[in-house]
Amino acid sequence: MPEKDKSGEQGFGKYILIKEIQNKHKSLFDINVSENYVSGILYLEGIHFNLMYFPLKHLGYKAVVNSIADLYCRGQLPESIMVQMGVSVRFKKEDIESLVEGISLACERYSLKISTLDISSSLTGLTLGISAFGTTGDLSKRVVPESTDLVCVTGDLGAAYMGLQLLERERRVFEEGGTQPKLKGFEYVIGRQLKPELKTSLLDKVRNNEIPLGLIRTVRDGLASELLHISSTTGLGCRIYHDKLPVDRDTASAGRELGFEPLIAALNGGDDFEFVFTVPVKEHEKIEGIEGINIIGHLVPQEEGNSLVLPDGSLAELKAQGWGEDNQL
Q1: Which pLDDT value is given to residue 183?
Q2: Host H or E run for residue 105
Q3: How many CA atoms lie within 13 A of 224 on its CB side?
Q4: Could you count the other beta carbons within 10 Å of the beta carbon of residue 104?
Q5: What is the pLDDT of residue 139?
């Protein structure tokens, strides 16, 4: 049983728990990642989405994007998906059709086929599970990460989390007084939350420039969490720089509106669906020449830990949900 945290509630760091399970059943998890052509996600109503402001069409699209992202990280090309959904009696035929329409649009966008569609009854709410299947793609050269490697990220960070906070704020206002939502001017951050896209074209540019990749991950739980994953996998630390983190001006504007620090959204938000990866330091000039990719730091020896360099030059330890024993799952 997980230990109780200070509030008395039971909690655990989910990534720590997953590693414990993998170690306990090592033979079952002993799979060569390069041979693993399957990726999947599970969305639960009330946990991963709120249908008060999340259109079913957008939900279907986003779920597909989420399911295929890790295949690109492995250098594989997604080919098909298997869709399973559980729906309660409050959902009508038109609702299911809208959800499937969003799934279909994503399939068109990323050249996917639907191999299986299964619909089951549910006692409560909506459950959506998607498994994605891929094949070996035109792989970028892969190298073993070293302590001098650069850490790079595509696009910008924190927008999706800011979009979520705005939607949640307007939901609460609407429930309390029935006032119509005021979201004008925040289309970008809301769009990043409701209908994300993968920057696969930037990965193509990395490959076309013959830049070898070390390790690559999808930023879905916040940048800090993905960097801790990279550190755990490589046995190295990382150092990133506050003034190098890419934050869009619309994200900064939303932060001012909400009184929320965009840096926190970038590090510990979620659903950005950008790619964070390492490349050898000798590729600095090439990677810097690709518009849309930012160098945000570098790897360091493990004993130097994982840290954020603040504007005054001081170091702050990188922390993320799911990596502490007292975190809730």
Answers
A1: 86
A2: helix 93-109
A3: 22
A4: 16
A5: 65
pLDDT in tens, 37-93: 899 999 999 999 999 999 999 999 999 999 999 999 988 999 999 999 999 999 999
Measured N-to-C along each axis, helices 56-73 and 93-109 cross at an angle, to the nearest 10 degrees, of 30
Helix ranges (DSSP H) in 115-182? 159-177
Residue appearing with tokens 């490697």? 149
Domains of the chain: 31-136 (3.30.1330.10), 150-317 (3.90.650.10)
pLDDT surpassing 70 at residue 33: no
CB crowding 154-188: b at 16 or more within 10 Å, else e: bbbbbbbbbbbbbbeebeeeeeeeeeeeeeeebeb
- Identity (one letter) of the amino acid at 308? L
E-assigned strand segments in 88-125 = 113-121
**Cα 4 off chain centre by:** 28
Strands (E), 31-140: 38-44, 76-87, 113-121, 126-136
- Answer for the pair 145, 128: CB distance below 8 angstroms, yes or no: no
Nearest alpha-carbon partner for 296 in 137, 157, 196:
157
Average pLDDT, the chain: 89
pLDDT the model gives residue 91: 93
pTM above 0.85, yes or no: yes
Residue 209 has pLDDT above 50, yes or no: yes
